[in-house]
Amino acid sequence: MSQEDNMSSLLFSTKKMLKKNPVFSKIARSLITFFRRRSERKVYAYIRKNYTQLLEKYNNVTDFPAKPESKLCEESAYPVWVFWFQGEENMPEIIKMCYSSLLKNADGHKVNLITANNCSEFIDIPEYISEYHRKGVITHTHFSDILRMSLLSKYGGLWLDASIYISKKLPPFDGIQFWTGKWTNGCEYSKKTRWTGFLLYCLQNSPFAGFVKEGLYKYWNENNKLATYLIIDVFITLAYEKINVVKNLMDNVPATQRGVFDLYSMLNSEYDKEEYESLCKEICFHKLTYKEDFMEYTKEGKLTFYGHLMQEWMTGRSK
Q: I need a labelling partner for 51 at 20 to 30 A (CA). Which of 179, 279, 288, 316 fits?
């Protein structure tokens, strides 16, 4: 790992601490962005130069099966994929709450919780990747990147990070080949303008998932360390810019998820029923996090948004 990546990792790990100081938090975020973008640009140039055959393979794809072929996908409109390596019993409270909200709002879709114990039942990850994962060279976070693209390529369906809270029934995605959390149509290079890795839907054999999966497999077959933290975004960027069918799929996604982080930003604030219901009516998916501490009550003893969610979905206590 390069010096700039070490610096980026160090800054990323201290972001929670720095958040307590707005000035230092702003500086930290700027430095993290600077080092990460510089690292990603170098990796992008390397992959663009050395993955030409894989790019050519997917540029020859003009179509793919419109309907899933596997039995797993036939049993429901589309399968839903969630990953928590340690299993449901070891989820933090807020993740259990999110998972519970998904099960309640699955609307007949098969929800598949992937764990260390059942991963091999669904997908065959190359042994060299599994070995790197066991040794800690590949983190759980990056392993989930590899896993999501492998599952979406093989089965299709909806991938949700375990930290996503679902406030209403899952959308049908009828007639849609690809969808992702997207909240602006800006043209600058940034994943925020075109996709979110934590919220992805595609059909089986999608060239989007297929290219990224094969790219990650090839990368780890030829390298023994992670060159940049969000290498998955490098591959997605390359797919968008160099594979016509992928660009068309991504450009056709409407920007409808502008408020995906709004609930997260309000978790420690006093609960407001009208504001909560308005937000939940607007969007279905809400990205939260387990890496921060949240309060059920304010210092004044008022119920917070987090407290409301925990009461509603986990504790069964009165509102």
A: 179
